[in-house]
Backbone:
């Protein structure tokens, strides 16, 4: 696993910051914020990137985020040093905006003939980042990029699992990434889903989310292969699914029908009993509509067992990492299983009767977890869910 | 469990040489080229395979206030494929019907339109209604809403292998039992931003000597027994697929693609889907099989094997 986030650029730093309830929200310096009302976001501290990447301005900053996280994940997987090589190492990226800063130069050139190069289009092109990651990881297998708005990261993990199960790849570097940009911020501000206040998921006083940037990468590997080479197995990816609400571009489906269906499908894939799940890492954007509909979706899927689940939204601390959100939340879910700790949903003030699941507010909770779900949703009605279990001994 | 096989039962091509299966097949037979000087975009010195005569309203179930040009092509391709496969969308098992599409540049044209206001007037004047039309998943999600498709949903933004990835994902979904039918394909539109980028000094040839093009292709993939039960015409069996990234091993233009690319242009994210549909014509003309290869300039590769065999035997039961 590898992480580049507003609260740290290694997995241990990221995880300890989350468990300590640290906020990564601050003033934006990534782009010129003149003319914007909202100027706070979860920004990555570039000085924490490896020197070679930090200084390499031939690549878009978003690409450098995913490369830094992919390098960590590959080192963590032990694959480069393993005597048992993986056949057809794949790369599945996910992003909402790709190399947006490079894309802006192409758009501006089109409109007012400002300076741009074709290499800006290439750097904007989503597949280019996958080419960079494949080169860095020595991946010679399937190579693709998904874009499923804010469910992208969950979709990437799920599709990586598809490719391993279908025998198309022995292992897959599954990555989500995005960077803050003037282009994306213009649109996200216009949508009016962001708050001037703190991000308060499942709180009566919640008033929206704040977007952020970074990358999360997981190496998804065939279980038998991982065991054969004696790898450290962080968790079993036991179920996955992706679907669409087929309801509305920006409004959630009634009673969270699409979210409920995707979580149910992820559990059903390998016949996982809903009551074997102890924890749900929620999409939890802190928008008015997401949190109660997602609460309802969990109740639909888990029935009476829903009250036994601990839930949390790490977006309260790191903001909404867009194309990376699903992958960093998957990593947090795995670490909750590994360490028996659920990171807090910070900024909580007042309970909301419409968001009445057992949310771990303000301070972390220690609780044994064998299996957990990470849930994601996005613009266009896209949903994705992944289920992790503690890996059984052989 | 018997192995699940995948049939192609419908095709919706949108291209510079013809829209709809019949027109497209006829144009392929004539060998006519759709490459010509640009008429719709104000960019000098570019020839392209442009779709000059196209009216999206012919293909919509419900009126739309706005669609990106790439979404328009996706809507047309979906409508044509559904009609060609004889599907009654109101009576399909929607959670068991998947939708997998791909596009290299998606709604770049609308993104440029949206960003114009930011550049000229500042971010407060950005149009909120346009922004959801700039997402890479705009077209696929609008299609899911249009047809109520709540099943598996994957959108690829994987350069020139986007459509191949989408078709192969649909194939795998049906074989794995995640879906019984999948609408799969790709779409790509020309836009001023894209064309101007290709006139920049350091721009490569977009298609290895072949003009840039636009279009969309969607095929209906269907589990073989499901198709047989519907008593629908089967164009071909999707009999195999491969994904890789061995740059240099496959050159664009092998297999069925070269002549077709000369006619429809390098349609990037839509390419493989249109080539799959062109391969259906080959099979209809008597070929036993056809191989569609797809290559992204960055090295990702994909191959799709179609087999013509009629009538299709039912899957053996264990």
Residues:
């Amino acid at each position: 696993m590898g992480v580049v986030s507003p609260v740290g650029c290694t997995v241990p730093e990221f995880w300890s910051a989350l468990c300590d309830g640290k906020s990564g929200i601050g003033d934006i310096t990534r782009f010129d914020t003149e003319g914007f009302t909202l100027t706070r976001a979860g920004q990555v501290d570039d000085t924490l990137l490896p020197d070679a990447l930090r200084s390499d301005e031939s690549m878009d900053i978003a690409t450098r985020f995913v490369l830094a996280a992919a390098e960590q994940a590959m080192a963590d997987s032990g694959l480069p040093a393993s005597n048992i090589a993986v056949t057809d190492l794949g790369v599945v990226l996910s992003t909402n905006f790709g190399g947006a800063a490079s894309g802006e130069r192409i758009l501006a050139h089109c409109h007012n003939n400002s300076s741009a190069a074709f290499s800006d289009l290439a750097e904007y092109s989503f597949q280019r980042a996958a080419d960079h990651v494949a080169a860095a990881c020595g991946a010679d297998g399937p190579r693709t990029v998904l874009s499923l708005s804010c469910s992208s990261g969950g979709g990437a993990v799920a599709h990586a699992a598809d490719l391993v199960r279908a025998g198309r790849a022995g292992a897959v570097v599954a990555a989500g990434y995005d960077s803050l940009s003037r282009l994306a911020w213009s649109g996200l501000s216009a949508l009016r889903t962001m708050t001037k206040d703190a991000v308060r998921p499942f709180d009566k006083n919640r008033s929206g989310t704040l977007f952020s940037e970074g990358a999360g990468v997981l190496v998804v590997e065939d279980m038998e292969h991982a065991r054969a080479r004696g790898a450290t197995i962080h968790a079993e990816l036991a179920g996955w699914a992706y679907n669409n609400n087929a309801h509305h571009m920006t409004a959630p489906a009634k009673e969270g029908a699409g979210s409920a269906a995707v979580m149910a499908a992820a559990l059903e894939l390998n016949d996982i009993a809903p009551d074997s799940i102890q924890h749900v890492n929620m999409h939890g954007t802190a928008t008015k509509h997401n949190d109660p509909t997602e609460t309802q979706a969990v109740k639909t899927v888990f029935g009476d067992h829903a009250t036994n689940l601990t839930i949390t939204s790490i977006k309260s601390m790191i903001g909404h990492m867009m194309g990376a959100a699903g992958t960093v939340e998957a990593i947090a879910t795995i670490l909750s299983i590994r360490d028996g700790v659920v990171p807090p949903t910070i900024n909580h003030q007042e309970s909301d009767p419409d968001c009445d699941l057992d949310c771990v507010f303000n301070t972390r909770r220690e609780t044994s977890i064998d299996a957990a779900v990470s849930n994601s949703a996005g613009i266009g009605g896209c949903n994705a869910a992944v289920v992790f279990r503690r890996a059984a001994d052989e | 469990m018997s192995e699940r096989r995948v049939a192609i039962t419908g095709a919706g091509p949108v291209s510079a040489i013809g829209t709809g299966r019949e027109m497209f097949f006829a144009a392929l037979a004539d060998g006519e080229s759709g490459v010509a000087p640009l008429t719709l975009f104000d960019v000098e010195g570019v020839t392209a395979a442009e779709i000059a005569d196209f009216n999206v309203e012919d293909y919509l179930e419900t009126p739309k206030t706005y669609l990106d040009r790439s979404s328009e092509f996706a809507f047309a391709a979906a409508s044509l494929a559904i009609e060609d496969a004889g599907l009654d969308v109101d009576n399909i098992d929607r959670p068991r019907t998947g939708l997998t599409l791909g596009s290299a540049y998606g709604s770049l044209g609308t993104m440029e339109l949206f960003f114009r206001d930011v550049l000229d007037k500042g971010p407060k004047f950005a149009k909120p209604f346009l922004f959801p039309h700039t997402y890479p998943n705009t077209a696929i999600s609008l299609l899911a809403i249009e047809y109520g498709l709540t099943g598996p949903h994957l959108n690829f933004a994987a350069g020139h292998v986007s459509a191949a990835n989408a078709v192969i994902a649909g194939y795998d979904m049906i074989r794995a039992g995640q879906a019984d039918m999948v609408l799969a394909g790709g779409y790509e539109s020309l836009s001023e931003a894209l064309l101007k980028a290709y006139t920049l000094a350091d721009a490569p040839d977009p298609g290895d000597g072949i003009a840039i093009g636009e279009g969309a292709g969607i095929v209906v993939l269907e589990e073989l027994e499901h198709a047989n039960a519907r008593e629908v015409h089967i164009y071909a069996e999707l009999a195999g697929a491969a994904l890789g990234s061995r740059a240099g091993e496959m050159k664009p233009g092998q297999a069925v693609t070269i002549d077709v690319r000369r006619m429809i242009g390098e349609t990037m994210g839509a390419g493989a889907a249109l080539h799959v549909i062109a391969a259906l014509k080959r099979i209809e003309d008597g070929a036993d099989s056809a191989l569609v290869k797809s290559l992204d300039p960055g090295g990702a590769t994909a191959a799709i094997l179609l087999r013509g065999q009629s009538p299709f035997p039912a899957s053996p039961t264990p």
Observations:
- Residues 61-77 of chain A form the longest helix (17 residues).
- Chain A has one domain: 2-389.
- The longest strand of chain A covers residues 236-244.
- Residues 18 and 279 of chain A are 16 Å apart (CA to CA).
